[in-house]
């Protein structure tokens, strides 16, 4: 009578997991040895445990260096890491471009730098207009009704922001009407 199949999932108990790893590691090494002897195959296994301990099996008459050299030769003697490096450089360039765009958007939204409306689409202009209207509404909402038309020192900053937003909104509206 054969054994029943077990469900393949992570073993939760660390002690049981380590025991299973050791037993199965020895089993797979045994199978690799059998394959190399029975079929005259070049077999090499490299495994790392959870604790980063390396375990390896290298078939008879073989070294890790010879095995990796043959692997590289089979692939056309290309550098194993070159394509990975190129992809990482490409990804880095895309991330830098995205980062620069986001920084520009942040600077434009907080008022640093000049807004280059020539490069903005009509949808971006509408979004900017909505942001300005929303900012003006928030500033007006924060002021008490009795002080909305007064010039107290603590409100000067808010008034400047509102006037700046209104001026920008006016420029956008003029720009959109002239297009």
From TrEMBL:
Listed InterPro entries: MADS-box/MEF2_TF, MEF2-like_N, TF_Kbox, TF_MADSbox, TF_MADSbox_sf
Cellular component GO terms, alphabetical: nucleus
Protein's GO biological process: positive regulation of transcription by RNA polymerase II
Major location category of this protein: nucleus
Subcellular location: Nucleus
Signal peptide: none
SUPFAM superfamilies: SRF-like
Short name of any one Pfam family annotated for the protein: K-box
Keyword Aminoacyl-tRNA synthetase carried by entry: no
Gene3D superfamilies documented for this protein: Transcription factor, MADS-box (3.40.1810.10)
Gene Ontology MF terms: DNA-binding transcription factor activity; protein dimerization activity; RNA polymerase II transcription regulatory region sequence-specific DNA binding
Keywords, alphabetical: Coiled coil, DNA-binding, Nucleus, Transcription, Transcription regulation
UniProt KW Nucleus keyword: yes
Ranges in a coiled coil: 85-112
Sequence ranges assigned to domain MADS-box in this UniProt record: 1-61
PANTHER family assigned: SERUM RESPONSE FACTOR HOMOLOG
Protein name listed in UniProt: MADS-box domain-containing protein
Species the sequence originates in: Arachis hypogaea (Peanut)
